[in-house]
Amino acid sequence: xxxxxxxxxxxxxxxxxxxxxxxxxxxxxxxxxxxxxxxxxxxxxxxxxxxxxxxxxxxxxxxxxxxxxxxxxxxxxxxxxxxxxxxxxxxxxxxxxxxxxxxxxxxxxxxxxxxxxxxxxxxxxxxxxxxxxxxxxxxxxxxxxxxxxxxxxxxxxxxxxxxxxxxxxxxxxxxxxxxxxxx
Length: 183
Prior knowledge:
By secondary structure, the chain is mostly helical. 81% of the residues lie in helices and 0% in strands. It is elongated.
């Protein structure tokens, strides 16, 4: 490897890890993408290997890592909705309240960024629960707390999956560097 290629490889790795760090923050901050940004950064890294004269995705090592990261990103997407809504359902939140939360969260995002999504989601959930529970704001607030609890657990799961995805990527880079003949 020449010095220029080595510098290019290092710069690519740093940029990829920085983008992955933004993805990790996105696991907590709703306006940023989380696991999918990490996945896209890994795809970009793998494709850029060809520009640097390396095998695309570092050969089979990167291919295996991308498959694992894809499965983890899909698991994150499923867990995000399943955990949030199953905990909310256990707390007595109706499907209509959940639907109102999702719709008003999406409506709120473009009008009041970056917090419009959160305000819309919580507000929609509260309003539907308020009328569903006989205009009892205490019961409606209990429902909002249950939904928040589910969302909190979903965030914990997403952060964990994002950390695993970054670990898989680091493993890919270390293996490709340690065993270049295996590519």
